[in-house]
Amino acid sequence: MDGILIQILNGLDKGSAYALIALGLTLIFGTLGVVNFAHGALFMLGAFCAVTLQRILNLSTTSIDATRTDFLGNPLKVQTPYVESWFGPEMGSTIIDWSVPLAILFAIPVMIAIGFIMERGLIKHFYKRPHADQILVTFGLAIVIQEIVKYFFGANPIPTPAPDYFRGSFDFGALLGMDPNIVIYPLWRLTYFGFAAVIITGIFAFLQFTTFGMVVRAGMADRETVGLLGINIDKRFTIMFGIAAAVAGLAGVMYTPINPPNYHMGMDFLVLSFVVVVVGGMGSLPGAVLAGFLLGILESFASMTQVIALLPGINQIIIYLVAMIVLLTRPRGLMGRKGVMED
């Protein structure tokens, strides 16, 4: 039972990242009809927003401490971060320690701006082009963004730790009435799952209960009719592109303590996330979320030692195998609509 719980938790952890990226992909496809292969790059840019803020907060001033000397007897040079100079040592060190959560506030406007620039500057010119053209141009954009990040940040992963408060583990088994220290799970991974749940719930609530969201949903169902009512649906769809970019960016920000950011992490998640979208159903927001968590859990169980011993390499292909089965038996995906991607 403890092994099953651990694998479920691992699956929810992976599934949270899959679901958030797939949700953004589906928002863009459902509103604009664009297959955005640059969406993984937005996830990566979000992660590097956290790296950038961490570096900004660690900018330091150098001073001489005459009371301390190095091994040669010279006065010791001391690096003091500016935030500690401005807010005091205790508050400054706390701000630096919480750089990842604070990066959420930094990433939201940055990612929305990047989304607007992408949509207005490039993607709007491909709305009426074939999906193959959209895939090629957005994939090329993703490679350009990847190389720019590699140039400025280097090729090596950059450790970006979680706050000290979240670096421990949580006794999940004791919460369920099991013996202590049976099911121990990293606290930040549980936090990531909770964060993903909040973002997903917020997006669905926004689309379901706000006037803006209801108009967007109407536009997704019948764009021409909404336009005939005098509503500027294109402007609203552009805003949704920015929101989708922000969702991907926030997923990347919170993922940095789990997987140190590197320039190719966007590509690593992109293919898997597109498989998730296809399995859930192109254009279906609930399908994207459901498939993300289901495939995450399935991949987690396929990574168990016992399963790999029986079927070597199954953990590397299980998601694609499931995608093949789903598409052969239900081409629309689990919750896809008739006619989507069938032309």
TrEMBL record:
Please provide the record's keywords in A-Z order.
Amino-acid transport, Cell membrane, Membrane, Transmembrane, Transmembrane helix, Transport
Q: Where in the cell is it found?
A: Cell membrane
Q: Could you name the Gene Ontology cellular component terms for this entry?
A: plasma membrane
Tell me the GO BP annotations in alphabetical order.
amino acid transport
Q: Which GO terms describe its molecular function?
A: transmembrane transporter activity
Report whether Transmembrane shows up as a keyword of the record.
Answer: yes
Pfam families (alphabetical): BPD_transp_2
Q: Could you tell me which InterPro entries the record lists for this protein?
A: ABC_transp_permease, BCAA_transport_permease
> Which superkingdom heads the taxonomic lineage of this protein's source?
Bacteria
Membrane-spanning parts: 20-53, 98-123, 135-153, 192-216, 237-258, 270-295, 307-328
Its membrane topology is listed as: Multi-pass membrane protein
Its family remark reads:
Belongs to the binding-protein-dependent transport system permease family. LivHM subfamily.
Q: What is this protein called?
A: Amino acid/amide ABC transporter membrane protein 1, HAAT family
Q: What organism does the record attribute this protein to? A: Jannaschia faecimaris
